[in-house]
Specification:
The complex is a heterodimer of chains A (about 425) and B (about 550). Chain A has about 425 residues and is an alpha/beta fold. Chain A is about 35% helix and about 15% strand. With about 550 residues, chain B is mostly helical. In chain B, helix 23 runs antiparallel to helix 24. Chain B starts with a helix and ends with a strand. The chains are: A alpha/beta (about 425), B mainly alpha (about 550).
Chain lengths: ~425, ~550
């Protein structure tokens, strides 16, 4: 073990002792060496390995907190069950809300988790938690799911962005921006908040294509000169970023929805959520490892039922279209669709006929690669508590990483300090992993 | 238990190097730095990179001290000066300038915010600017941040540091320990630190006890007379934490008896009244927070405080700490140069925490002015300080320097230093908006595609820095008929040095191939330089 011990390797967090000692030994004394190799994807052998198994993620982020009762975990007959019925799905014995008939037909592709207890029912903290699977420490700012997937699945020389997030509506946007944390801006998302075309991806008028290219070559030449005799991870990342500019600019067409047929566009629907999800499909098809599409205004403190009557069918249509489309293209087996929010909504109905924030027994769904379709966990008869198979944020993230073929106990290094991907001591829900 | 603690304290003190073995206290700081760094280099048989030339030195000093690159005239006058004292004189002039106050306030603000940047906003920065401007000693700043007096105009804004964190006392405990004492006790929250004997759960909860009585009372910080922290240790029954500093030094608080329901109610009403009156409640008769400040600054305990700030200043100016990471200062993670850190900490302490003194000493050392280029085979590790470290520019350094680089150099030749200062200050404040396009660098910082796309395609960048205009570099360049002369001016303005022969050739060729659109060609050359690596770093 190196003489510098700077981290937390306690048995209380149940890190495998051997694994822990192994990494520490491999680390040796040259703590610095690790970060200069931050991008291990530049190793061709490793890159090939990853390419083979490259998986992609589309996260449908239901900002504000969709109600589990009006989606995945209906409570017909309960006093707080609300006006909607539960319907039989293609999975024998499994019922979901009648607002999701298309998903009911496609339940054999989807895993629903009905036993999330994530303990945080405040938009800000909960959004951060459910995007990261853990809470920041004083001096450690954790990367979110998108940044981790970008880091694990992205390619250094990729011509497409590796983390794209659509968040057009304003509700909760400031609370859940994409965030690469300590992985640094190399893995920061390309964030789209105003329209469906990324910022600064198009050449400005006033410079010709050729000049744009040649001034970049000039920049490259001068910067290479400077880099002689100098090594720094930051310097490397800067030049790598500029090398990706031309490729990213050529990915402009991926964001152009008019390239799709009317039939496909109708299938997703012509609303913003449908269109952005269709762009997400175009992106992952071109090799983008992670895309988030945020759909806001789920925070139904008043008029919960009208809100869900309007919004759940849209979610149903978009999700079903995405599943069908990915399946047709042979992409479903490589892609994980996650529908998740910062929390669910209370079973109790308030005087404004709304449901409030609720993190004690709510639901999410995972569809596609690495997971077994079905239902995991149970809330009690009233939906107030988890009755079976409690899952917290860390466990959910361990499950997601495992489904993607990423070892959830893998360490990143902050200097010499190993930082495990998920909260130490957390295991995935092995029963649902395919 | 007690003897164990004493043993640990002894260990820590041993790691701090016996004072008697250190170089005398009256030796100049820069000499002491070079003595210890060179001694270690000799011991590990490593040579060091040569000293930088004058053009690199003035750029480095100005970026580090006043947060911007020099103008061509500033560079020229430094390079042409034959005064053997010119480096000292430049350092003293820069440190006496308002730019020093602005830049160091930004740096302290980033340091207090930490990587999670829970900054306090404008109020805290204004406070820090006043504190740096008046050269307030670091212990006074620490006191004013932890014990803010809302009625004192001198310390206005200092309460932002605690107020922005007070809703989460764990966070306050961790952040204060990290920022002021260089230790991260967050591991010890759930269990005794497995690898670092220094940190027990008692330490985390001991530190937390100093803050547990503090809360937000309608936008004002308030502190109760009572309040105990109980925790469940990994072994044994739940117990009550002692107010205890990181050294194991415990404090017995008077009136530890918890209040009756009635007393509690009375106190609540008292605080409600202050809330209604929109007034800051007075401190309690015994303030746990004040006790922490007192204990942390008493002779033995102050080791943590002095060593942490010495390490942080070293990191700020050299680019890499004597102890890395900055929040892992403990016996199991020794400094690269134990004597040097102990000497600097002693110097900071015995000179009443005058940070200007330490800063001046660091930037006058030869260690500070080594080239960042290493041409031989194996690059020495960063902890040897044999090679200068590339420091990515901070958002404000970047934005302000972009302004300076792309302004017509004539605009800075006003003749009067006060006018120049005013002009620079104006440029800096106009740069603040653009600064938010960049990320605050951290250790092992990575630059992402967003920045490269911003430079490549942003309309705003083109308008702000590359558009024609009277006071723009591009305007001045367009008036020069001889391309090599124009190139020379561009390189001097952006990179603060003359162009090399190769650059002259390549860049002149680039523009002469575009004689039909010469202005565009110059714009593209300026672009290639401001987006390039050399500009992006303090090198």
């Amino acid at each position: 073990m190196g003489k510098h011990k700077t981290f937390c390797g306690s048995g209380d967090h149940a890190i495998s002792r051997r694994g822990f000692l192994g990494t520490a030994a491999a680390l040796g004394t040259a703590a610095f060496a690790d970060m200069t190799q931050l991008n291990l994807l530049s190793n061709p052998a490793l890159a090939g390995e990853l390419k083979k198994q490259q998986k992609r993620v589309i996260l449908l982020w239901l900002a504000g907190g969709a109600s589990q009762v009006e989606t995945w975990d209906p409570k017909p007959g309960a006093a707080t069950g609300g006006p909607f019925r539960a319907i039989q799905t293609a999975m024998p014995g499994v019922h979901i809300s009648e607002l999701m008939p298309r998903m009911a037909d496609r339940m054999k592709h989807t895993l629903v988790i009905r036993s999330l207890n994530t303990k945080n029912a405040d938009h800000g903290g909960a959004s951060k938690l459910m995007m990261r699977g853990r809470r920041d420490e004083a001096n450690v700012k954790f990367p979110d799911l998108g940044a981790v997937v970008a880091r694990e699945m992205g390619r250094a020389d990729s011509k497409v962005p590796d983390y794209v997030t659509f968040y057009t509506q304003t509700e909760g946007r400031g609370m859940a921006p994409g965030d690469a944390g300590f992985l640094g801006s190399r893995y920061a998302p390309m964030e789209l908040t105003t329209n469906n075309m990324p910022e600064n991806i198009r050449k400005v008028d006033g410079i010709s294509e050729l000049d744009h290219q040649q001034r970049a070559d000039l920049r490259d030449l001068l910067s290479k000169q400077f880099a002689q005799g100098r090594t720094s991870p930051t310097l490397g990342s800067q030049n790598e970023a500029y090398q990706r500019v031309r490729g990213l600019m050529s990915s402009e067409a991926l964001f152009d929805i008019t390239k799709e047929s009317d039939k496909v566009r109708d299938m997703y629907g012509r609303g913003q959520f449908g269109e952005q999800t269709l762009i997400a499909r175009r992106l992952i098809e071109a090799g983008v490892p992670f895309v988030r599409v945020a759909r806001a205004w789920w925070d139904s403190h008043g008029q919960n039922f009208e809100t869900h009557q309007e919004m759940v069918p849209e979610l149903d249509q978009v999700m079903a279209a995405l599943i069908d489309d990915l399946k047709d293209r042979g992409l479903l087996e490589h892609t994980l669709i996650i529908t998740l929010a910062e929390f669910g909504r209370t079973p109790s109905i308030n005087p404004s006929l709304g449901r409030d924030h609720f993190a004690s027994a709510w639901s999410c769904s995972l569809t596609g690669t690495g997971v077994k379709p079905g239902v995991y966990g149970k809330s009690d008869a009233t939906g107030n508590k988890v009755a079976e198979g409690e899952v917290d944020a860390a466990k959910l993230f361990a499950t997601i990483y495992s489904a993607l073929g990423i070892n959830p106990h893998k360490n990143y290094y902050l200097g010499a300090r190993p930082i495990p991907l998920v909260e130490p001591g957390t295991e995935p829900i092995t029963e649902v992993l395919a | 238990m007690r003897s164990r603690r004493l043993a640990l304290l002894a260990l820590f003190v041993a790691a701090c190097v016996a004072r008697a073995d250190l170089l005398p206290a009256d030796r100049p700081i820069h000499e002491v730095i070079d003595h210890y760094v060179d001694a270690k280099l000799a011991k590990v048989k490593t040579t060091s990179a040569p000293q930088v030339d004058d053009v690199t030195l003035i750029r480095r000093l100005m970026l580090d001290l006043v947060g911007r690159i020099p103008t061509p005239a500033e560079t020229r006058s430094f390079v042409e000066s034959t005064d053997p004292q010119k480096r000292e004189k430049l350092v003293d002039r820069l440190m006496a300038s308002p730019g020093f106050v602005r830049h160091q306030a930004n740096q302290f603000e980033a340091m207090l915010a930490g990587p999670n940047s829970r900054g306090g906003g404008g109020g805290l920065r204004d406070y820090l600017a006043r504190a740096v401007g008046e050269s307030r000693p670091w212990d006074q700043v620490f006191r004013e941040l932890l014990l803010p007096d809302e009625d004192d105009p001198k310390t206005k804004g200092s309460s932002d540091f605690l107020r922005s964190r007070v809703s989460d006392i764990d966070r306050v405990t961790i952040d204060v320990s990290v920022v002021f004492f260089g230790v991260n006790v967050s591991c010890a929250q759930c269990h005794d630190h497995p690898l670092v004997n220094d940190w027990k759960q008692d330490h985390f909860y001991g530190m937390k006890s100093f803050f547990a009585r503090t809360f937000d009372n309608g936008g004002f910080l308030a502190e109760r007379e009572y309040g105990l922290v109980r925790f469940k240790p990994t072994k044994g029954p739940e117990r009550q934490a002692k107010m205890m500093f990181l050294t194991g030094m415990a404090v017995s608080a008077p009136g530890v008896k918890e209040p009756t329901k009635d007393e509690e109610k009375k106190e609540r009403e008292k605080f409600e009244q202050f809330k209604k009156d929109k007034k800051a409640p007075p401190p309690p008769s015994f303030s746990a927070r004040a006790k922490l400040v007192e204990v942390a600054l008493q002779s033995k305990e102050s080791e943590y405080f002095s060593r942490s700030i010495a390490n942080r200043l070293w990191h700020r100016f050299i680019g890499y700490g004597l102890v890395m990471p900055l929040d892992q200062m403990h016996t199991e993670n020794p400094p690269s140069h134990p004597e040097l850190l102990s000497w600097l900490a002693r110097d900071v302490h015995s000179n009443k925490y005058d940070l200007r003194r330490t800063i001046r000493g660091i930037v006058l050392s030869k260690t500070y002015s080594r080239s960042s280029k290493w041409t031989a085979e194996t690059v020495p590790g960063p902890g040897t300080f044999a090679v200068g470290r590339l420091k990515p520019l901070t958002p404000m350094q970047m934005a302000a320097s972009l302004k300076i680089a792309t302004t017509d150099p004539q605009a800075f030749e006003t003749g009067k230093p006060e006018e120049l200062e005013k002009r620079i200050e104006g440029l800096e404040s106009s740069a603040r908006g653009f600064a938010s396009s960049f990320a605050q660098p951290t250790d092992d910082f990575q630059i992402g595609v967003n920045e490269a796309l911003l430079f490549s395609n942003s309309d705003k960048l083109a308008r702000e820095f590359l558009a024609d205009g009277n006071e723009k570099l591009i305007g001045r360049v367009n008036g020069i008929s001889d391309p090599p002369k124009a190139i020379d001016l561009i390189v001097r303005s952006v990179l603060c040095r003359p162009a090399t022969a190769d650059e002259q050739r390549v860049l002149t060729e680039y523009v002469t191939r575009r004689t039909d659109r010469l202005a565009d060609a110059y714009r593209q050359v300026i672009w290639a330089l401001i987006s390039g690596s050399e500009f992006r770093f303090n090198h």
